[in-house]
Design goal:
10 helices, 2 domains, about 240 residues, six-stranded parallel beta sheet, SIR2/SIRT2 'Small Domain', binds adenosine-5-diphosphoribose, Rossmann fold, about 20% strand
């Protein structure tokens, strides 16, 4: 027995800030979220970085420190279990996250596609080299490769920049037999458009969210509640062949 319970599944999961909320990392558009306190155009665009790099570095240094101090929650752990369980059944999980923290990886997920980049990476705008990075970044930080100062930036995608891995994501979406969004408001494209793409492919869609997302009407099914409760329950159903 290879543990198979019915046909092998290819599941596409898209996560957003809501999956990390119970790990203590703030979301963006909920009450108290980052964008309710700060103007993203002042801290999360290439123009903002050019105009005030110290402000932008301070913002991301604080988020990097918070991300390092946070711990994965039961929702992250359940998705890592889903990856292993689907593989044992001959299936596959494609985990696409809008998040820039590394909680999926620290929960044990082996393949995570960060479409908005990663807080724990830094990139030199002079030579283009990217590095794993846990410390604060500043104007004085020299590039470990080319040595230039004042050229290091967080390796995250800012508003107005092209998200990463879009072709890989589109290919995975076309191959999936189930699309699930966890903890995302559906406010930012292209991620917010993936549910429409899934429906166009005839793929069943499910939202696991604390409250109805902006694109809630696009999902065939929605389960409201905290991710640390809804995601483990759903994963048990999927791996037990009951969903
Ligand atoms: N469990 C499940 N969902 C939750 C929880 C929770 N504990 N807490 C909040 N949520 C839901 C909220 O209801 C909301 O729909 O998570 C969603 C968070 O929405 P946003 O704050 O808009 O975050 P996200 O959708 O990830 O934003 C997308 O916008 O600013 C950019 O790059 C940034 O990746 C981010 C993108």
């Amino acid at each position: 027995m290879n543990g198979a319970v019915g046909p092998a599944r290819t599941v596409f999961v898209l996560t957003g800030a809501g999956i990390s909320a119970e790990s203590g990392l703030g979301t963006f558009r909920d009450a108290g979220g980052a964008w309710t306190r700060l103007d993203p155009m002042k801290v999360a665009t290439p123009e903002a970085f050019a105009a005030d790099p110290v402000l932008v570095h301070d913002f991301y240094n604080g988020r990097r420190r918070d991300a390092l101090a946070a711990k994965p929650n039961a929702a992250h752990v359940a998705l890592a279990r889903l990856e292993t369980g689907l593989a044992e059944q001959g299936g596959r999980l494609f985990l696409c996250t809008q998040n820039v923290d590394d909680l999926h990886e620290r929960a044990g997920s082996r393949r995570v596609v960060h479409m908005h980049g990663e807080l724990l990476k830094a990139r030199c705008t002079a030579c283009g080299t990217a590095f794993a990075w846990q410390d604060d970044l500043g104007l004085e930080t020299p590039c470990p490769h080319c040595g230039r100062r004042g050229e290091m930036r967080p390796d995250v995608v800012w508003f107005g920049e092209m998200p990463m891995h879009l072709d890989t994501i589109d290919e995975a979406l076309a191959e999936a037999d189930l699309f699930v969004a966890v903890g995302t408001s559906g406010a930012v494209y292209p991620a917010a458009g993936y549910v429409a793409q899934a429906r166009a492919f005839g793929i069943p869609t499910l939202a696991l969210n604390l409250e109805a997302a902006d694109n809630a009407g696009m999902f065939e099914a929605t389960r409201l509640g905290p991710a640390s409760r809804t995601v483990p329950a759903w994963v048990e159903e999927i791996l037990g062949g009951r969903a």
